[in-house]
Sequence to fold (176 residues):
Amino acid sequence: MTEQIKIRREKQGDFREVFELNHIAFGQDNEAKLVDALRINQIAFVPELSIVATDNNKIVGHILFSKISIKDDKGNLNESLGLAPMAVRPEYQKCGIGGQLIRKGFEVAKELGFKSVIVLGHEHYYPKFGFQPADKWKIKAPFDVPSNVFMAIELATDGLKNISGTVVYPKEFETV
Ligand SMILES: CC(C)(COP(=O)(O)OP(=O)(O)OC[C@H]1O[C@@H](n2cnc3c(N)ncnc32)[C@H](O)[C@@H]1OP(=O)(O)O)[C@@H](O)C(=O)NCCC(=O)NCCS
Fold:
């Protein structure tokens, strides 16, 4: 099944299918609506970082990375990326598609000059791709969350060197 999976940038004609995919993977509409809302945030949205996995032209996976900031205690903002949400159709899960989407996202993000990614998610899943607890860099979530599920990765050597503080998410995340 995975041999015929293609990974590519999302196109406008994909939006409805991506909504349905998020709806089915999460069993609710919140994440699907978040993706729709983030696409129209001209500051946070990076079109190259909304990526889909297809099987025979059917969308079976999607990942989105949006611009976020890390605000230090002096109020300085450092740009990073937030990985959220990502979804794979239930019948295609555990075949490595999620991993392919993450790795492609990292590759594109590096090409675009981003130096790090932050994720809130499964503590056993994301470390497979190099994520480590964000408190290693003294980076905190803007809400109460167990430290092992709030993670970061450097895309470039020392991508988070001397960067610490609290993550500021685009306002669209407040409604999820
Ligand atoms: C989280 C999610 C996106 C992962 O996608 P996925 O395509 O299943 O991910 P992968 O296949 O890369 O990895 C999943 C697991 O399968 C394993 N795996 C990867 N390739 C495999 C293969 N060829 N054969 C068997 N297992 C494999 C991985 O090691 C991983 O193991 P784990 O269960 O111990 O973590 C998917 O489960 C999903 O959509 N979940 C619902 C929505 C959600 O929770 N999203 C994340 C929060 S934003």
Observations:
- The beta strands are 5-9, 45-55, 58-71, 77-88, 116-120, 132-133, 139-140, 150-154, 165-168.
- The pocket of coenzyme A is lined by residues 25-26, 84-88, 93-99, 121, 124-125, 128 (CB under 6 Å).
- The radius of gyration is 16 Å.
